[in-house]
Amino acid sequence: MQHIKKLSELSATAICGNDITSSCLYVSALTIIYAGQYAWLALLIVSGVLFLFRKIYGEVVGALPLNGGAYNVLLNTTSKSNAAVAACLTILSYMTTAVISASEGMHYLHGIFPSVPVLLATAVLITLFLLLVISGISESAIVAVVIFVLHILAMLLLIGSGIWFVLANGLGVAKINFGMPMKGGFATALFLGFSTAMLGISGFESSANFVEEQKQGVFRKNAPQHVDCRFCDQSADGAYCCRGIAPF
Length: 248
Description:
- Keywords: Membrane, Transmembrane, Transmembrane helix.
- This protein has helices at 9-35, 39-63, 70-77, 80-112, 118-134, 137-169, 172-178, 185-197, 219-245.
- By secondary structure, it is mainly α.
- It has a domain at 9-72 and 137-242.
């Protein structure tokens, strides 16, 4: 019998954590657009929602430790049609995330090297990751860990630079930002900011899609605790630091 190599806590966390940690880099900015100076509060509310949801998520997948995520849960609790709809929406969500992420990355690269064609480079990048996934989850997990570490270092660099700027220049920019008027009032800004911030939590649920490939006990560690808490802390800290160093 062939021995199947199971994923460690770091590898499993990296696979689903890349989506979340990359979301930190754009969700904070989008939340600031709608919530303004109260973006940090909207992000903290999202972190509270995730904190309440993590135990439910862990118990449900722990009771049905099979690959499939939402599809598997609905298949065992409702009808096949509902499960099929959930599966289709999940696939569309992942495809959209992959295309948007690749396109945004190539747009950044095009800004540095104008000779790079965005559309062609996006197709090549998606194809490379397609071949990587086909090679096996263990092999792709190694690349995922490298990307995950780079994401964490980028967030730490962002937070550290923000703290350094505030210590060196004071809270003048932050005071100006928090004194800016808001359209629609506090409640509207908080509601729109919360709705926008919820877009960035996609990815933590993907751990349930490969739970059978994880070592015993790894899922309960990486999915409900490490990944979403890391997203919340980095997003909130990043948004707060940015408000202290960048004017509206």
